[in-house]
Amino acid sequence: MYKKNKNINLITTLANSKVYLGNKKSVWDSSISPYLYGIRNGFCIFDLEKTVINLKKSLKLISNINKSNKKILFIGFPKGFEDKCIKLYNKHGHFYVSNKGWVNGILTNSKDFFIFKKKSLMELSNKKIKEKRFFYEKFGGILNLKNKPDLLVVFNHGKNLDAIKEAAEINIPIISFVSSNDTIKYVDYPVTGNFNSKEFGKLYYNLIKNALLWKI
């Protein structure tokens, strides 16, 4: 009964954050159909029970990876929670990339990327403050990434397809927060819904925080 009540509470929180409301069916990706409750007034409505099941499964995986001292690469942040997320990931020794930070080859061509990082850091002392800030905003979260991560967690799915494809190419498990106009191709653990609200951004941060603290 306790577990059921927790699920109901999470469903209620997701409903209040309007996670259930997808895009118009005219722009949907059909791969998302198993995760929908139906179509209403031309809009996709997500089945929040399925969202909760997949969300909890994903959080459990994040927790287990963290407990095993393995490494997670988080890509993308909910709006307004970037600084908090960065502090959280740094605290637990994981890596991150912003929505604007992905460069093809980070995972699949790590040797060349290592050379690029080394050269850039050597040249950084001669750069202007603005250029230094740009470099660290783009690559600061993966400067110490030497081996492929054990898990990829993608918040803004549609903006990070190149990263998803790259991770899939070298068999890194992928959790991704997927909307109705996205494809779940390549994603091992799709969490489906509309995740654009500020309310969900706060919830996302707290859920990831609890998973890393083993409080799930």
Q: How is this structure best described in words?
A:
This protein has 216 residues and is an alpha/beta fold. 44% of the residues lie in helices and 15% in strands. The protein is built from 7 helices and 8 strands, in the order H-E-E-E-H-E-H-E-H-H-E-H-E-E-H. It has helices at residues 2-16, 48-67, 82-91, 110-123, 129-139, 161-169, 198-212; strands at 21-24, 36-40, 43-46, 72-75, 95-97, 151-154, 174-178, 189-192. The strands form 2 sheets. Strands 5-4-6-7-8 form a 5-stranded parallel beta sheet, with helices on both faces. Strands 1-3-2 form a 3-stranded antiparallel beta sheet. Helix 3 links the parallel strand 4 (72-75) and strand 5 (95-97). Helix 1 crosses helix 2 and helix 2 (48-67) packs parallel to helix 7. The two termini are 16 Å apart.
Dominant shape = globular
Rounded mean pLDDT is: 91
The count of β-strands is 8
Number of DSSP helices?
A: 7
Major sheet: order of its strands? 5-4-6-7-8
Which helices and strands, and how do they pair?
Layout: H1 2-16, E1 21-24, E2 36-40, E3 43-46, H2 48-67, E4 72-75, H3 82-91, E5 95-97, H4 110-123, H5 129-139, E6 151-154, H6 161-169, E7 174-178, E8 189-192, H7 198-212
Parallel strand pairs: 4-5, 4-6, 6-7, 7-8
Antiparallel strand pairs: 1-3, 2-3
